[in-house]
Structure formats: C-alpha cells, structure tokens
C-alpha cells in the first residue's frame, strides 16, 4: 500500500466522503470480520452464563441483560454491515444531541439553574432542556449533511 493511500485511510473519517472516494477504491471486508461478530455473540452468552452461575445474578436480570446486549449487537451489525442514508442520518442526529445536549445541560444546571426559582423553575427547565436537545439535533444533522451522511470508516 502506498503512503498516500495509507494516509487517506487514516484521515478518511474526518473528511467529507466524496473527496476521498475519488481517490480511494472500496476495499473488501477483512477476513476477521465475520468471526468478530460470532465471537461477540459467543462472549455475550458466556458472560450471561458466568453471571448466573458464578456471580449469582438472578435469572431474570441475566435474561434482560442478554436481550439488551443482543439488541445493541444487532443495531451495531446493521449500522456497520448494511448502512443506509436514513439510519446514518438518525445516528448523526443522535450523536449531535448526546454530547452537545449533555455539555450544555450540565453548564445550564450548574451556572444558570440556581437563579430561576419558584413555580417557573419546572417549566423553564423543561423548555430549556427541549431547546438544548433540538439545537443538538440540528447541529448533528448539519454535520451529517457536510459528510453526506457517511459514517467515518464506513465501507
């Protein structure tokens, strides 16, 4: 592999998708790709069995944990193996809400939240929180548009 292609693959996740694809051909999935997903499933089941027998976690909690883990693995598999514009857009919106909303909400709670008192406090906090989440969604969608809704290092 040439140095130019290697550097393009390293910084590919930070550049808009169309500027990289003109120079870089799509690569096939690595050999370890399929065994990775199988190993993740086996390790998840093994951790549930170990949790039940060795750590004495109740069976109901083990089953709920395994179901949630399988749902998350299924979502991760769908995102990485069968990407689509709609799912990628939803991910960009969620990724915009999460860090922006968290940082701004904590800053709001620490600095501004103590100055609003009385009956207005509950409604004001709800309105500000919804505004923060909507702003984060717009920021995530804006970043996604700039990248043509392609996730970093996606095939």
List keywords for this structure.
mainly alpha; single chain; 155 residues
Q: Hey, roughly how much beta strand do the residues contain?
A: under 5%
Q: Summarize the helix and strand pattern as letters.
A: HHHHHH
Secondary structure: number of strands: 0
Give the termini distance in whole angstroms.
18 Å
Mean pLDDT: 78
- The amount of helix comes to over 70%
The description of the largest β-sheet is: none
Textual characterization of the structure:
- This protein has 155 residues and is mostly helical.
- It is flat.
- The protein has a domain at 85-150.
- The protein contains six helices and no strands.
- Helix 3 runs antiparallel to helix 4 (59-81).
- The longest helix is centred in the middle third of the chain and has 28 residues, at 85-112.
- The protein has helices spanning 3-11, 17-21, 33-53, 59-81, 85-112, 120-146.
How do you describe this structure in short?
The chain is mostly helical and 155 residues long.
How are the SSEs ordered, and which strands pair?
Elements: H1 3-11, H2 17-21, H3 33-53, H4 59-81, H5 85-112, H6 120-146
